[in-house]
């Protein structure tokens, strides 16, 4: 068994994005289309009555509006930023707040090309990961599990080190996973529990899971999980979700198998 089976079994949902009453340059539509070029997320634009500013609408399979966010918020959080903002720490936990149309993409089964094939596609995974880390930090309870492929990334990336030091100092039971490339001791010094291994799950998986106390109970809070696996071509396949069953199944597997 491996984490890949959870991705293979996940069916996913249909979503599309609409730029409503766009007055901004064509460049913004092009950037949005590029960000989702490999996804099952269509991008279109339209004139929508009642929308007085440039907005992005998230539509379901029957074209019902599931969420709406200002185009400026989508641009600043995704289109006009890059992974360096998270790696260097210029985007801190306090500043992370993804627009509703981005968090509303939960349940979509995505396919994202990594560097050097794409400089932007993987940013969605990075931004959602930081949002989950923020949720764990704000709740200050429960468990948090995250994989890094190489443990050195936790301590060598200034922004990542800062986030996991804050989580390590919090009341969140924080666990990190990856191949030990000589950095396990430094990672442990952050106050987190380190799990090292060399299997495919350690080398080629990307998961960030926050499980609040009592998650899974009828009146309990929702967990949130991101899971992606990398194939031989450097393409990440996965999903993120707040649905109880898939999120808890992934968390249970990581807790008992890694």
TrEMBL record:
It holds the Pfam family DICT. Residues 121-210 form the DICT domain. This is DICT sensory domain-containing protein. It comes from Halolamina litorea.
């Amino acid at each position: 068994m491996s984490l890949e089976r959870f991705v293979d079994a996940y069916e996913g949902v249909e979503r599309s994005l609409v730029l409503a009453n766009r007055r901004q340059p064509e460049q913004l539509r092009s950037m949005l289309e590029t960000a989702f070029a490999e996804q099952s997320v269509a991008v279109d634009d339209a004139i929508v009555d009642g929308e007085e500013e440039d907005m992005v609408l998230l539509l379901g399979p029957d074209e019902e509006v599931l969420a709406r966010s200002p185009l400026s918020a989508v641009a600043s959080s995704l289109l006009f930023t890059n992974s360096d903002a998270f790696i260097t720490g210029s985007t801190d936990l306090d500043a992370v707040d993804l627009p509703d149309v981005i968090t509303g993409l939960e349940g979509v089964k995505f396919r994202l090309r990594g560097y050097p094939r794409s400089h932007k596609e993987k940013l969605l995974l990075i931004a959602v990961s930081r949002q989950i880390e923020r949720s764990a930090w704000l709740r200050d309870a429960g468990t948090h599990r995250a994989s890094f492929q190489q443990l050195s990334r936790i301590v060598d990336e200034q922004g990542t080190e800062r986030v996991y030091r804050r989580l390590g100092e919090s009341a969140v039971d924080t666990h990190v996973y990856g191949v030990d490339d000589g950095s396990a001791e430094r990672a442990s010094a952050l106050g987190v529990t380190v799990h090292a291994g060399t299997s495919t799950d350690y080398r080629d998986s990307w998961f960030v899971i926050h499980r609040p106390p009592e998650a899974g109970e009828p009146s309990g809070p929702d967990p949130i999980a991101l899971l992606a696996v990398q194939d031989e071509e450097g393409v990440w396949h996965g999903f993120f979700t707040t649905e109880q069953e898939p999120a808890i199944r992934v968390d249970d597997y990581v807790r008992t198998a890694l």
